[in-house]
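One-letter codes give the sequence; the fold follows as tokens. Both lines appear below.
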Amino acid sequence: MGAGIAASQLTLVRKAHAADAAKGADGARKVEVRRTVCGHCSVGCALDAVVENGVWVRHEPVFDSPINLGSHCAKGAAVREHGHGEHRLRYPMKLVNGKYERISWDTALSEISAKMLDLRKQSGPDSIFVVGSSKHNNEQSYLLRKYDEADRNRQRADLLLQITPTETLTFTPAASYKYDQYIATGLQQQNTGPGQKGAMLGLQEAVSWSAGMDVNWTPVERLTFAAGYTHESIFQKQRSRNRNPDDPALDWISDNTDTVDTYHASMTARLIPGKLDLKFAGNYAYALGTVSTWNPNANGSTVYNGIANSNQDARRWPAFEDSLLRLEASLRYHFAQVWTLSLNYAYEQFRKHDWRTDTIQPFVPGDSALYLGIDQKNYEAQIVGLTIGYHFR
């Protein structure tokens, strides 16, 4: 029976046939193999497309590709069907009285856009929900994301100045501010606020800003000093729900705030102008993350009171922090007009305090371990390198 099923499945896939018109000088079919990249997702798997008389008839995975190593996923194996499939949709279709009818692109776009604008006018921007999946190719995913964010409320301001009081001294202050509101409802804490019972979940608000300044000073022609400081703040408000039971009283509001302070300083000395340069540099960055949560619909709810002090009860979480220190020195020799040779040394120190992962041992058999992705451990490193550089003119 298995052989019969396999045979019946094979009849569903037929090889594409090239036209007879295009032939080589000797009358034989012209067959080419063209190396390309699968466009279904952003991984970048390599394909060898077999083109017969100008028609893409089949393809094979590339074995010497460092990405897919001679393998296909199911979508990559069927990627030719995007443009050559016999059953693919080639034009808009509209369901009329239980049957699909062909309509023009202008009609389809006009009717869909009018309907969406009408929904937004009647029920607000939250009445339209966009879902993407791995069935979309790169271009579809780009357009879907662009469309999804078109209704986002955003305010943004950027400032960059360069102040040069003297020819040897430069100050460069910079600042930026960005506010995104993804969903207009569900931000009120009171139980009777608009949209509380039917508020959408997910990222609702994001605010980020940064401010800093760089200073460059060249007291003499052969010596340059540089220093700078930047403070960054990233705030995100998210809404989620524990669905056991699925009740708005168990909604969570999470305020996530990350701050990053970065300091840097360097000195560059031209020991032999145009020939030999010496550079010392140092960078230090400190990041702090905080999470504050609460249940906005908890007041007066019998459902919430019944699960108080359980995992569905929002609470304050400990902060987490990390820091990175890097000190480096470099000696660069210009041995030709466009060639350089550099000897580099760097010292790195990374420190982290994260309650989520500090005590977790991933992949321990028989243990209640939990894997939370990349868990960078504390480390110290000394790096020595020799590099050759070429300057394109």
Summary: The first strand starts at residue 31 and ends at 37.
